[in-house]
Input
Amino acid sequence: MRKLLRPGGRHAFTTIHTPPDLTPTEHRLAGVSGPPAVAGADPAQLLDRAGFTDIKSYDVTEDYLATSTAWRAARVRHRDTLRPLDPEVYDDRLARGALEAKALQAGILRRTLYLARRNP
Amino acid sequence: MIREETERRQLYDARHTLADHEVTRVVELEAVDTDYGNAGFTTKAQADALADLLELTSTDRLLDVGSGAGWPGLYLAYRSGCRVVVSDLSGSGMVQARRRAAADAMADRTHAVVATARHLPFRPEQFDAIVHTDVLC
Output
């Protein structure tokens, strides 16, 4: 991404990841509870090594839990019209949403917003 | 394209087809306050915060990687007046993004490109800002 930016350009992204120091069991659980591949490497270090400056991070895990809960509630509210579109997808999303909420409440999944600038 | 990307493209194409239904849009509005075919975790309020953090202005050129059907890149461009390139593995997502850009009268400053995040087909130093939401996970 760095080379695509003009000097001084801004880079912002969110990533869903595991916190450090999880036990192997917690790590496995986080892996099946979040998105298809939960990030493992530390993005701040990667940004630094890639030559970005002014690196800032914001923990947005609480927002992630609120949004995950809102998705699940909305899907349940509209079950009768939503599920017939694709029952397999509906059931999968609901099951994944429940796992995700559990993992977030247990503190084994996090979401972080990063902001960085390419060296001028 | 590696096998995992091919599988994801099929999955995302199927999701974007579902996102076209009225009830799916209602659920999206209730969950994340957006109507872009967004199935992720970035709400409208969070996209507003992203726009402020990125200090986007109308002279900027923004790249949104892994944009799905154009969220949040199209919205950030709509809000700031900047030019935008949205990219995603999903061809149907990019079709929806083009349709949305036309509906919002910003087709002339929008490009929707089907590409993998590993091989972005752009020349160096083309963008003033890059955004991606939960693509690294």
